[in-house]
Amino acid sequence: MFSHGAFPDVRPRRLRTTAAMRRMTAEHRVHPADLVLPAFVREGIAEPAPISSMPGVVQHTLDSLRRAAAEAADAGVAGIMLFGVPEVKDAVGTAATDPGGILQVALRAVREEVGDALVVMSDLCLDETTDHGHCGLLDERGRVDNDATLARYAEMAVVQAEAGAHVLGPSGMMDGQIGHVRRALDAAGHEDVALLAYTAKYTSAFYGPFREAVESGLTGDRMTYQQDPANGREALRELSQDLAEGADMVMVKPGLPYLDVLRRVADAVAVPVAAYQISGEYAMVEAAAEKGWIERERAIDETLVCFKRAGADVILTYWAVEAARRAAAR
Ligand code: PBG
């Protein structure tokens, strides 16, 4: 027996003795209502198409997307975030503002399927619809033109709201995007549509598998608009701007490598905070598990509770449905 002199032994292990004890004393737990499922829908395919770098994730057809949304609602998942992959991409991302564009068609289909049972969200960005793969319009010198892009985002916001999105997620990291989109929505009578701001979105190598998922045409990188991974304090500058412009919720992305940023943001705000566990994070766990190097389910659940511990209220994860089922059983 060890001793601290006059004091009784302090033994934190007493609270770890049984599963029931650990369950009672857990500071954080993941609830299905914390989870949002990102989902891809591709125009013009007859069968769901597997994404090789994201085993278990597919590009959906409209039918399989409906089924996935219904399944997510059934599992108690909070929401779904839709990404559309159009058949034809061009310099200005025409498909993004076409009411018949795949994302808008998918929004209508999902709302028809689940109504208000899920929070239906859409990615508000041009990279899925542009042939050059950038998140905005390019100027004559090939630079991403901030203010010309804002005008496109404003149009996108209105068509996405009209297609039935409850929440829009502007993810392009243009300066002023939240305010610009908010004004456009309000002017069109969509005061009720909420904005989930990608407040601190870092330029990341871990987006790799997503680029396959949306068949991105990107060559080069997004370093002139997404944040530098070296910067933490800068996230607070983005944060104050997004809040001033009317963000209803804020997000940090990627997830695990940026938990310090998540904590700083969570400590600074009174709005809900989301974290996005991105494609490369998913791929790493799946690949290591496939090799038998880690225990898949334990690793997944550990990553998710770590987001909660770091201050996330909402977690976007490709594992949302299976994690919700396990969380409900705990
Ligand atoms: C941009 C967008 C990206 C992701 C979500 N929205 C890619 C990027 O910024 O390059 C990445 C999501 C993931 O990797 O899971 N529309």
TrEMBL record:
Keywords: Heme biosynthesis, Lyase, Magnesium, Metal-binding, Porphyrin biosynthesis. Signal peptide: none annotated. Pathway: Porphyrin-containing compound metabolism; protoporphyrin-IX biosynthesis; coproporphyrinogen-III from 5-aminolevulinate: step 1/4. SMART domains: ALAD (SM01004). InterPro entries: ALAD (IPR001731), ALAD_AS (IPR030656), Aldolase_TIM (IPR013785). GO terms for molecular function: porphobilinogen synthase activity; zinc ion binding. It is an enzyme of class 4 (lyase). The active site is at K201, K253. Its EC number is 4.2.1.24. It catalyses: 2 5-aminolevulinate = porphobilinogen + 2 H2O + H(+). 5-aminolevulinate 1 binds at R211, R222. One of its GO terms (biological process) is protoporphyrinogen IX biosynthetic process. GO terms for cellular component: cytosol. PROSITE patterns: D_ALA_DEHYDRATASE. Homooctamer. Belongs to the ALAD family. This is Delta-aminolevulinic acid dehydratase.
